[in-house]
């Protein structure tokens, strides 16, 4: 079996497994897996830029929040239904990533990190400043009646899980497809050696910009979905810690792997959740675990798996 | 025994099974499993009887969503102590409906995402009867939709206006602490009549500050006063000297509310700016909760006034109820821990946990609460409450609960800093805190 067929088989299998879990998981894990799948889309978006293109952004919460607010503000203030509101959320993420991409790509390395961080901070403060509409740090509830698409109630546990799974599958297969195309290989080439890629005749700037657009829009899709599926939008999701989370999830799962973001998000969720059952000092347990992982699996869980055995993993 | 058996059946019929209108495969599998279990258990009558007895003796689980980490940690520490003290008292008095009360605490990190996860965990994994205890507004608003979907009563101790504004749902109630809208508007008569009519407001430039700005401005103008300047401080600010020159010279009263660690710098710099000639100063204690008034830099607060939900220092007219409550929680007459005088409490807010738990007890007993199937009855029982007299269960003072808006109303306290202590200067009436209803949750179905 070719490596490409193995890859598609594995990732289709993961989606099928998640579909099967819908019918057997207890309520608590069922609800949380839905949440993890949505956040994994955010991590996948981040991974496209960081893991494959080698651009370390510290401001991705801006894109997540753009999707969340693009969707929720149109629902809240314009009375739009969820379907068109999601489109607005995606468009907001696309537009935001275009602006940020054009400006931030004038920098590189540490400067790129700082510029993206500053853009995100500006976005966070804007969400607070326009508190009349966003309710700032408090945020607002997206009422149950507005959380419906085509008559499907997204506040229903099964509908929510399946909607999260659809989004997850779309993001997963887009990522898988992209990394198999010439475009994806150029992104990896930029990550490995930008000068050499340029010398080979590729338009590095354009590829980076497209990577930001894809990454930002995927993050925005996750933000819009999170607001819609869980009924809340607030400035916390635009804060700096929500820019750090996807970096952490991707590093834990394996940067530059298609499944790594999902594995990292899932691992981090259960690390916090289970360690909080053991002790009130659960942050210490979580911190120690992360240190150990960084020492013994520096390429992340899936990255380490690829290094040791499954070298064909995309 | 008969009651025990019926309790058992109610518990087996979990809300997930009974409350779902549209069956699906997963729920069908669960229903089948539950029915099979019930049939198997029922086929052995002696075992059924014993199990039933055990069920009725099972503790009532109260899920406590606590800010153990994050920005709300200081509040969370004292909310936790108050909650433990209240549960001890309730259990010492026989529990609720003869059942022991057990607290299941989960840290939400003062984060709305984790908050929603915690509510989910308390409801579906720990099998708690209710969720309780959240303070910070963004965590309440982020968690309440999940509480509504999971159909678990969610008793918050937040003082946010989000409950009474109609933003949340029938499962979310705030019966143990007044909300910011009523607190702020109740201050206006005192500020206007005692301190001055021309007010400059200094507040943080986010939702909490905006609530103060909007509610107080309206209230003070209704009293014939005037807000002469509104100075919003960005949340990232660490020095305030550039804002003080914006205070108009004819200001008679400065109204300040600054949440966060920058409050010490704020007070110090305000003192340096005004020197010995300052206008009257009125503030909300929120920023100084868990902060020792003897901290360096706070000397300038001498002679200024504060809103307190419950006076930190034991007052000359201290009630026996406050005395007993203070002793039960482990707070000395200065508002600090009896075991560590430097560990200052969040006394102005934490009574809300004590009072809420007593209201939950009263609601469960009035509704004959036996298990998760009676959650709607519990909410209806609380909605039916109105006057709550000053008592050991309500040591902060008498309350009037509005079942339609799920919000309680009560006395507010204004204290003055005298020799480094907060001394009671004025107590508002409950009527001062009223405003027209903005929602009727009782019209929402369960």
Low-pLDDT runs of chain A: none
- Rounded mean pLDDT of chain B is 86
How would you state the average pLDDT of chain A, rounded?
93
Under CATH, the homologous superfamily of the largest domain in chain B reads Response regulator
- State the total count of DSSP E strands of chain A: 4
Structural class by SSE content of chain B: alpha/beta
Q: Which CATH architecture of the largest domain in chain B would you pick?
A: 3-Layer(aba) Sandwich
Q: Could you give the distance between the termini of chain A? A: 15 Å
Estimate percent helicity of chain A: over 70%
Number of helical stretches of at least 4 residues of chain B: 13
Would you give the CATH topology of the largest domain in chain B?
Answer: Rossmann fold
Structural shape of chain B:
globular
Cα distance spanning the termini of chain B: 30 Å
Query: Tally the helices of chain A: what do you get?
Result: 14
Report the helical percentage of chain B: 25-40%
Give the topology string of chain A: H per helix, E per strand: HHHHHHEEEHHHHEHHHH
Q: Beta-strand level of the residues of chain B, as a percent range?
A: 15-25%
Give your account of this protein's structure.
Chain A is 75% helix and 3% strand. Chain A is an all-alpha fold and 314 residues long. Chain A has one domain (3-239). In chain A, the strands form two sheets. In chain A, strands 1-4 form a two-stranded antiparallel ribbon. Chain A has a two-stranded antiparallel ribbon with strand order 2-3. In chain A, helix 1 (3-24) runs antiparallel to helix 7. The two termini of chain A are 15 Å apart. Chain B has three domains: 2-56, no CATH class; 59-178 and 349-411 and 434-443, Rossmann fold (3-Layer(aba) Sandwich), CATH 3.40.50.2300; 181-318 and 332-342 and 412-433, 3-Layer(aba) Sandwich (Rossmann fold), CATH 3.40.50. Chain B has helices at 2-12, 15-18, 25-42, 45-57, 73-92, 112-125, 137-150, 180-195, 207-222, 263-274, 320-329, 347-367, 375-383; strands at 60-66, 101-107, 130-132, 154-155, 172-173, 198-204, 226-233, 253-256, 280-284, 305-308, 336-337, 340-344, 387-388, 399-402, 407-410, 413-418, 421-427. A seven-stranded mixed beta sheet of chain B has the order 7-6-8-9-10-16-17. Chain B starts with a helix and ends in a 19-residue tail after the last strand. Classes of the chains: A mainly alpha (314), B alpha/beta (446). Chains A and B meet through helix 1, helix 2, helix 5, strand 1 and helix 12 of A and helix 3, helix 6, helix 7 and helix 9 of B.
């Amino acid at each position: 079996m070719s490596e490409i067929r193995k890859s598609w088989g594995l990732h289709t299998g993961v989606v099928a497994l998640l579909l099967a879990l819908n019918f057997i998981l207890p309520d608590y894990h069922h609800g949380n897996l839905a949440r993890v799948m949505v956040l994994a889309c955010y991590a996948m978006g981040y991974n496209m830029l960081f893991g494959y293109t080698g651009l370390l952004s510290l401001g991705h919460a801006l894109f997540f929040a753009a999707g969340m607010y693009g969707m929720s503000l149109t629902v809240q203030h314009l009375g739009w239904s969820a379907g068109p509101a999601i489109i607005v959320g995606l468009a907001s993420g696309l537009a935001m990533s275009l602006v940020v991409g054009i400006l931030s790509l004038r920098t590189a390395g540490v400067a790129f990190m700082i510029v993206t961080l500053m853009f995100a901070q500006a976005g966070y403060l804007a969400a607070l400043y326009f508190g009349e509409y966003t309710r700032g740090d408090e945020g607002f509830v997206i009422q149950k009646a507005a959380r419906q698409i085509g008559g499907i109630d997204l506040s229903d546990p099964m509908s929510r899980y399946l909607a999260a799974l659809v989004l997850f599958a779309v993001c997963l297969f887009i990522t898988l497809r992209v990394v198999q195309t010439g475009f994806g290989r150029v992104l990896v080439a930029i990550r490995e050696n930008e000068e050499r890629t340029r010398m080979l005749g590729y338009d590095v700037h354009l590829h980076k910009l497209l990577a930001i657009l894809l990454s930002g829009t995927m993050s925005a899709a996750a933000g819009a979905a999170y607001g819609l599926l869980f009924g809340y939008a607030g400035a916390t999701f635009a804060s700096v810690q929500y820019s750090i989370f996807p970096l952490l999830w991707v590093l834990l799962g394996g940067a530059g792997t298609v499944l790594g973001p999902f594995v990292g998000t899932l691992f981090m969720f259960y690390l916090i959740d289970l360690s909080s059952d053991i002790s009130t000092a659960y942050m210490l347990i979580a911190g120690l675990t992360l240190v150990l992982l960084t020492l013994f699996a520096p390429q992340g869980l899936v990255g380490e798996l690829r290094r040791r055995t499954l070298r064909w993993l995309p | 025994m008969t009651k025990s058996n019926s309790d058992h059946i109610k518990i087996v019929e979990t809300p997930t099974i009974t409350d779902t209108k549209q069956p699906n495969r997963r729920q069908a599998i669960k229903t089948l499993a539950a029915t099979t279990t019930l049939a198997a258990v029922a086929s052995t009558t002696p075992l059924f009887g014993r199990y039933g007895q055990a069920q009725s003796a099972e503790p009532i689980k109260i899920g406590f969503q606590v800010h153990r980490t994050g920005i709300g940690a200081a509040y969370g520490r004292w909310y936790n102590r108050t909650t433990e003290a209240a549960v001890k008292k309730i259990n010492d008095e026989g529990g609720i409906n003869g059942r022991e009360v057990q607290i299941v605490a989960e840290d939400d990190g003062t984060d709305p995402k984790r908050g929603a996860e915690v509510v989910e965990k308390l409801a579906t994994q720990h099998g708690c009867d209710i969720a309780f205890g959240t303070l910070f507004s963004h965590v309440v608003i982020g968690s309440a939709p999940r509480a509504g979907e999971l159909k678990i009563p969610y008793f918050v101790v937040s003082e946010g206006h989000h409950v009474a504004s109609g933003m949340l749902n029938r499962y979310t109630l705030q019966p143990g602490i007044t909300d910011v809208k009523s607190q702020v508007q109740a201050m206006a008569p005192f500020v206007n009549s005692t301190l001055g009519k021309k007010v400059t407001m200094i507040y943080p430039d986010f939702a909490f500050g905006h609530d103060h700005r909007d509610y107080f401005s309206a209230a003070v103008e209704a009293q014939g006063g005037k807000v002469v300047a509104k100075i919003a401080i960005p949340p990232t600010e660490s020095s305030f000297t550039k804002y003080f020159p914006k205070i108009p010279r004819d200001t008679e009263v400065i109204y300040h509310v600054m949440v966060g660690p920058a409050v010490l710098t704020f007070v110090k710099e305000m003192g340096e700016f005004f020197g010995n000639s300052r206008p009257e100063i009125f503030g909300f204690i929120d920023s100084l909760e868990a902060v020792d008034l003897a901290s360096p830099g706070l000397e300038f607060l001498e002679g200024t006034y504060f809103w307190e939900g419950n006076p930190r220092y034991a007052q000359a007219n201290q009630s026996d109820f406050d005395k007993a409550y203070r002793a039960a929680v482990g707070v000395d007459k200065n508002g600090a821990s009896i075991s560590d005088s430097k560990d200052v409490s969040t006394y102005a807010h934490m009574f809300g946990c004590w009072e809420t738990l007593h209201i939950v007890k009263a609601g469960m007993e009035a509704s004959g609460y036996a298990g998760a199937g009676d959650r709607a009855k519990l909410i209806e029982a609380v909605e039916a409450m109105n006057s709550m007299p000053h008592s050991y269960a309500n040591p902060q003072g008498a309350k009037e609960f509005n079942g339609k808006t799920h919000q309680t109303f009560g006395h507010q306290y204004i204290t003055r800093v005298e020799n480094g202590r907060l001394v009671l200067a004025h107590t508002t009436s409950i009527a001062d805190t009223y405003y027209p209803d903005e929602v009727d949750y009782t019209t929402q179905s369960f």
